[in-house]
Specification:
Blueprint lengths: L1 E20 L4 E16 L2 E8 L13 H21 L5 H7 L7 H19 L3 H5 L5 E3 L1 E4 L5 H14 L3 E5 L6 H10 L5 E4 L9 H5 L9 E2 L7 H10 L4 E3 L6 H10 L4 E4 L7 H14 L2 E4 L9 H8 L31 E3 L12 H7 E8 L2
Parallel strand pairs: 5-6, 6-7, 7-8, 8-9, 9-10, 10-11
Antiparallel strand pairs: 1-2, 1-13, 2-3, 4-12
This protein binds 2-succinylbenzoate and magnesium ion.
């Protein structure tokens, strides 16, 4: 059982090494909320950390960083305070205590991660051990944003392939699809390649999207809107490229629907999007039972969550390389010891909990605001 004394919510703004452009935005910095939980576990004082996946603006999903901070303070933390007054709080019950609040999965995920981190640090247990991870390193994939030109794209992809990345994911959108994918495939005939549209197309584009079948892609990720699970199933029947869902899968329940409808041959499990690591494990288990491949997606995680994603991706059902690149792909300075890609892989952390204690100077450098909420 855990007893939280107070929670510090920090809004951080961390510059990116290069702009990251998707069909929904161009980011030059990662704005995120870091959750620090100061607690007692079996009498010992511990600090746990969680990172909220929400971006600065509600353009990937409906959540956004300032909103996550607000809902956490106003509606999530009071529920955890009530739960611990009843003496019933553990990381495993955080999800149930927050269930009455609709949505806000990224805010819930960050809080659950921070409580779980505190609990595992108190026990001296690594996240990989807690999860039952079966590998000590995971293959590293890279997500490549939309570029200004095809030569610029080829330069960027060449650099990542030379760094050892095991698969390349290209962001696509209408007007930046067939030709960039063709150019990368011609330059790298053997590289494992996939595309991500972030919901930029409609079923009317089916004939265009079918042309991607010529490029031997591992999968196409989320071509249609978040709500269009049934339409993804229709599109999947029209294409030979395996259909993968990201935005549409927000829970184990929606994953079950997507699998049953034939909308997802593959699922991108992004812990923040689905409400946390524990729901991620449930989706992994469900997908594995159905023979549906999964891989671990990302939200430009800092060191507060990158290693935890690697531990999750070390479960046996994660059969495709994830968007778990080295810290240097996004950040010149990370909040923790940076994760480095070695021989195309990221090592699964062995330290207790989900992350290292963040560097205090880095927190100061990147902080744009903070709030302390007392629970005890
Ligand atoms: O769709 O997977 C996505 C980043 C922000 C929002 C959505 C997505 C992404 C990425 C980057 O593709 C994944 C990463 O390396 O963190
Ligand atoms: Mg995606």
């Amino acid at each position: 059982m855990i007893q939280i004394d107070h929670v510090t919510l920090r809004e951080l703004r961390i510059p990116l090494v290069s702009p990251f452009t998707t069909s929904f935005s161009t980011q030059t910095a990662r704005t995120l909320v870091a959750v620090e939980v100061a607690a007692r576990v079996n009498g010992a004082e511990v600090t746990g950390w969680g990172e909220c996946g929400a971006l600065a603006e509600p353009v990937y999903s409906e959540e956004y960083a300032a909103g996550a901070m607000d809902v956490t303070e106003r509606f999530l933390l009071p529920r955890l305070a009530a739960a611990q007054r009843d003496g019933a709080l553990t990381a495993e019950t955080v999800g149930a205590h927050l269930e009455a609040v609709v949505g806000h999965r990224m805010a819930k995920a960050a809080l659950e991660a921070a409580v779980l981190d505190a609990q595992l640090k108190a026990a001296g247990t690594s996240f990989a051990t807690y999860l039952g991870a079966t590998r000590d390193r995971v293959p590293s994939g890279v997500s490549v944003g939309i570029q200004d030109s095809i030569p610029a794209l080829l330069d960027v992809v060449r650099r990542y392939v030379d760094e050892g990345y095991q698969r390349v994911k290209l962001k696509i959108q209408p007007g930046w699809d067939i030709e960039p994918v063709r150019a990368v495939r011609e330059a790298h005939p053997d590289v494992p390649l996939q595309v991500d549209a972030n919901a930029a197309y409609t079923l009317v584009d089916a004939a265009l999207l079918r042309r991607l079948d010529a490029f031997d892609l591992l999968l196409i990720e989320q071509p249609l809107a978040e709500d269009d699970i049934r339409q993804h199933a229709e599109l999947a029947r029209l294409m030979s490229t395996p259909m993968c869902l990201d935005e549409s899968v927000v829970s184990a329940a929606s994953a079950a629907d997507a699998i049953a409808l034939g909308a997802a041959a593959v699922i991108n499990i992004k812990p923040s999007r689905v409400g946390g690591y524990l729901e991620s494990v449930r989706i992994h288990d469900l997908a594995r039972a159905h023979g549906t491949a999964v891989w671990c997606g990302g939200m430009l995680e800092t060191g507060l969550a990158r290693g935890a994603n690697a531990a999750l991706a070390a479960l046996p059902g994660f059969t495709l390389p994830g968007d778990i690149s080295g810290s240097a792909r996004f950040y010149e300075r990370d909040l923790t010891t940076p994760f480095a890609i070695e021989d195309g892989h990221i090592a699964v952390p062995t330290f207790p909990g989900l992350c290292e204690q963040p560097n205090a100077d880095a927190l100061v450098e990147f902080e744009v605001g903070s709030r302390v909420v007392r629970l005890a």
